[in-house]
Amino acid sequence: MEPKPSTTPSSFTDQQVFPGDVVLDLSKMANQTIKLGGGLRQDGDVISVMKAGKLRFSKPNKYWVESSNKRYVPSAGDNVLGIVVDAKADNFLVDIKGPTLAFLPVLAFEGGTRRNIPKFEMGTLLYVRVVKANTGMNPELSCMDASGKAAEYGPLKEGFMFESSTGLSRTLLSSPTCPVLETLGKKLAFEIAVGLNGRVWVNAASPSIVVLVANTIMKTESLSPVQQKIKVESLMQRMR
Amino acid sequence: MDLEREGGRGANQLRPIDCSRNVLSRAHGSASCSHGETRVLAAVYGPKAGTKKNENPEKACIEVIWKPKSGQIGKPEKEFEMILKRTLQNICLLNVHPNTTTSIIVQVVHDDACAALIDAGIPLKYLAESGKILLDPNKLEEQKTKAFVCLAFPSSVHSVLTEGSINGIITSLTHGVMAVDDYFQCVEQGRAAITPLSNILKKKLQSQSAE
Fold first, then answer.
1. Which spans of this chain does the record mark as coiled coil (chain B) (predicted)?
2. Average pLDDT in the A44-53 region?
């Protein structure tokens, strides 16, 4: 086996890495605090890769591996779309496409008291925020933002939800606005909610618009920005 | 080693390998891999909540289901399942998602030899035929030989460290009679063949995931 000889970690950033690759040697970097995101782990004196994907670095000291999967790894602060599976005395059990079910406390709503507990049936789609996500514990959710306001969280009524990969969700949420959404938004009026766990919800006045938006997003997942614009325009032409 | 092999391969050459990712739309992860004429389809579902009764809840549990190309599920299939499960347990980090189950279903599409493990473990087959060692046999050659060995090694990695290579075998399966020296020679030849094999695999996986 011939390990690639290179001493700088920057040679690996923005490159495809595979599990087992060693990307940082801590013994050579003294007195630096490094923050590790998802996909990396510390193995004694080296940082090695757990998941296959692209290694990313953001100044001053954050490293993480970006990969696109169909399953979601819960992390605190993410906005996700969950489906209610069960209702217990203190929590709702919500499925967020992760390794375990998540708990949504019954009081985690704006102005929530024991007297006005919302009644969600099994199968209700919710837009929620992940508050805590530790390994081994079920993640905790909330329908309020950090300051206690409702802020668009809660059940999503009507519309259509489809599932895809986490990479697509990140593209849709990137700023500046993703070309697909921009091109669609110029001609059509629709509402969209994107969960970082790979679920997307679309709602519009007529079903044909909903279907067009959903299909366009799903088909343009693997195209470059320029190709996306072209594809979207051709799909919209067909509708007229 | 001047043996004549079918298809004109030298003693140390591998069969053509192909592999593609994300072939099944409903599975959480899937890959299709082929070594020459052997083709295998593998699907992964999980991690899902809950472990089986006898498994340790502090670690993730891996469940393997092997489906042969034809015939009922019998003892050889159970044996493959157990071998794959043990191999994967050594490769995967089990503490990341405790109390979950990941199911892996392997379907043999075209059976020529033992199926290939995908990503981070590469099995190679050797056979020893009265003192000569051949790499990566197909079924006919397998039947003629005295013994064969199936080895899984960790794949080669890119590393920032200038020294330190990975030594070690993940799994070793032997069948038949062979001398100890022959076995070690098989191991060495296998190790030498890992780098080209894993480079091919990485290139294939990279070209598909780049969007």
1. none
2. 78
Verify whether the Cβ–Cβ distance A3 to B165 is below 8 Å.
yes
Q: Which two tokens stand for residue B211?
A: 């969007």
Is the alpha carbon torsion for A215, A217, A218, A221 positive or negative?
Answer: positive
How distant is the Cα of B91 from the closest Cα of chain A, in angstroms? 10
Beta bridge partners of A86: A93
Distance from the Cα of A42 to chain B's closest Cα (Å) equals 12
Residue A189 CA to residue A193 CA, distance in Å, equals 14
Angle between helices A179-187 and A207-219 (to 10 degrees): 160
| Residue A21 with chain B: CB contacts under 8 Å | 157-159
DSSP H/E element including A235 = helix A225-239
Q: Which of B121, B129, B127, B178 is nearest to B150 (CA)?
A: B127
What would the two tokens of residue A162 be? 């489809």
The CA distance from B187 to B103, in Å, is 30
Q: Which A residues 186-215 touch B at CB under 8 Å?
A: none
ipTM: 0.71
Res A82 pLDDT > 90 = yes
Q: How many residues does chain A have?
A: 240
Hey, are the CB atoms on A68 and B161 less than 8 Å from each other?
A: no
A172-216 residue pLDDT tens:
888 788 888 888 888 889 999 999 999 999 999 999 889 888 988
Task: Give the model confidence (pLDDT) of A113-142 as tens digits.
Answer: 888 888 899 999 999 999 998 877 889 999
